[in-house]
Amino acid sequence: MRVLVVDDELRTAALLKRGLGEEGYAVDVAHEATDALWRANEFGYDAVVLDVLLPGMDGFEVCRRLRDEGCWAPVLLLTARDAVEDRVRGLDAGADDYLTKPFSFSELTARIRALIRRGSGERPVILQVGDLRLDPGRRQVWVGQAEVALSAKEFALLELFLSHPGQVLSRTQILEQVWDFAYDGGSNVVDQYVRYLRRKIDLPFGVVSLETVRGAGYRLRAPQGPPSPG
Please, which residues have CB within 8 angstroms of residue 105's CB and are 6 or more apart in sequence? Predict the structure, then answer.
């Protein structure tokens, strides 16, 4: 199994390389972001151990760029920061796990083993269907090159549709995912918010991406022109 260690602290990187080597891993080391990006895209690593506090480009951005470039090797972030906000930021950037310094080496190796077992299947950071893109970490939405401002509920509704492209979602399914189980399933709130979304992501651009499937619910399709929304 091949592991890439990314850490600008030479002593820490050397210790990780030696320890992981003793565990039977083939270990490469990168001390800066550009080298890490090149290595990760050039070689098929089974896991990447990535320090957050890198000079120039931090580990969050390195991870995001890896995912944007189609590199899906499991990423374990190492950091001295233990704030919840930092952990959320790392996971939203596409990391698979997060370990706070100081840590035990046995825990590090256990987490690496778990990541390798999980594999490196594609897990897009940005959800996209046609020209419609949504970044869950940055809470941003674009249609083509135009950024679109959405409310929190509109964003959650669009994220649900983008996670199930081409799939018909009933009003009940949408209520349970975007609102909560206790919400009145007979309410027309779903229809209202679908209309709000259409006014922002469809009408200004002359497309219909949110379709009404009569008697069933709604479906997101790739924008292709102006058939009736129902």
Answer: 19
Main-chain phi, psi angles of 69, to 5 degrees:
-90, 5
Residue type, 151: S
pTM of the model: 0.62
CB 62 within 8 A of CB 32: no
End-to-end CA gap in the chain: 53
In DSSP terms, 77 is beta-bridged to 50, 98
Rg, Å, the chain Cα set: 21
How many Cα atoms sit within 13 Å of 113 on the Cβ side? 9
List, in order, residues 6 or more apart from 176 with CB less than 8 Å away: none
> For position 44, what pLDDT does the model report?
81
> Which amino acid is it at 174?
I
Instruction: Render pLDDT for 11-38 as a digit per residue (tens, 0 to 9).
Output: 999 999 999 988 888 899 999 999 999 9
